[in-house]
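Hello,

Following up on my earlier ticket. Below are the two sequence lines again, exactly as submitted.
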Amino acid sequence: MRSNKALAGLLAPPLLWLVVAYLGALFAIFATAFFTTDPFTNQVVRTFTLENFRALLDPTYLRIIGRTLLIAATVTVLCIVIAVPFAFFMARVAPARIRGLLVAAVLVPLWASYLVKAYAWRTMVQPGGVLESAFGSTPGYGLAAVVLTLTYLWLPYMILPVYAGFERLPVSHLEASADLGGRGLTTFRRVILPSVLPSIAAGTIFTFSLSLGDYIAVQIVGGKLQVLGTAVLQNITLDLPFAAALGTTSVVIMVLYLLAVRRTGALDNL
Amino acid sequence: MRLGLGSRLGFGVFAAVILAFIYVPIGVVTINSFNSDRTFGWPPPGLTTQWWSAALEAPGPRDALVTSVKAGLGATAIALVLGALLALALTRYSFFGKQAISILVILPIALPGIVTGVALQSVISNVLNPVFGINAGLFTIIVGHATFCIVVVFNNVTARLRRLGGSLEAASADLGARPLTTFRLVTFPLLRSAVLAGALLAFALSFDEIVVTTFTAGPGTPTLPIWIFNNLFRPNQAPVVNVVAVLLVTISILPVWLAQRLAGTSAAESRL
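Thanks for your patience. The regenerated structure is below:
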């Protein structure tokens, strides 16, 4: 069973697909980032240049990159702050019979269309919309609405792995901690948190990367807000190499992030 | 750990607030689908069912739905085969480069969709179209979707294989079964529900995808998300978009119910 031939047979089709259909396309677009465009036809001209990456250092684009990172980080932190107590309630506090119902309650919005949810927040924050009529004011379209909407969109992606992490945690560990005199908070800090940390890190991969690359929700609730995604979008037709350089930036950020969280064992908890 | 009544209550209240946060926007869209005000002033000045009858008669969303279902089925079929093969290879064998492959399979969902989309778009216009005569359309949508659907099947099957261990397969081999017989009679039956759960997720992922689809769908083949996005900012169509949105949320209860039946109430194994 454990022969090399069988392994090759198993590996060949998926690897061929991923390498040809995905990596090939990806490398082609990275290569484009080192090319330039003809100013008259907007066609890509294959002469090597670092100009696209130098242009990224322009304060306008540095600000856009910084803003995107700030949004991704804020959304991730908000998701953790909401998801950890909520998942703990689901797995450890709520009576066992409503647990399935709670999981379903989190899953339904996850399966509901992404666009529907972003659009729902547009009607929430729009002038004269729900927030204004309920609380007397609304953040309107812009940065705050984007953070709010993205947190809403990615929250289930954080709740589910953390919930699974809490569920895997053996009761005996909690009891042992209590028997040894650990109070609630001590048990939480020294026993619970370390064992669900990989699950939280797995959740952050979703919240961080999805926020980093998003441009649809930003267009729907962000007003004129510029982030990496919208900047890529605007440059695709006129200056593909520069769009590629912007895209490469987000890929580099994400790969660095993946390498950083891999140490926590997050990749096994996706 | 025994929690006092006070902290249990605190957790309960917190959970209720979060559930409200999750469901209020969806409820608002539902009510707005009956809102007689075209710009959705709140609270609604009056209620009407005219948007519902308009939406159910419109051909746009119906054609887009058909495209979405076709794309979802195609992408899921490819992802099932490739994801399951990869999971078997990575859990049952150890070899050089295993780590790299486990990262490679995550990349299509971990990297921003717009990068994947632009990359595929330039392959379509520089290679597929001039060399093979393939235009952007259903085929290219399926290829793009399958690429990021592989990982959900892979994750589900991997989780199941890890939990099962290899002892049953070893026993089957000891009893004289050849590898293919072992797979047919032992491994596959044990994997079936995990494969189904993975397929369900893959279909959902494909059905909801918009970013990669924007760059791989031709002008003639909008999927449902593309149709919604195209009509979102058109004042005439916005009420119809509301109705489609409500229908989509309602339909999404079905796969959740199915997935729960497949996996039991434990989410510990159903992977994203």
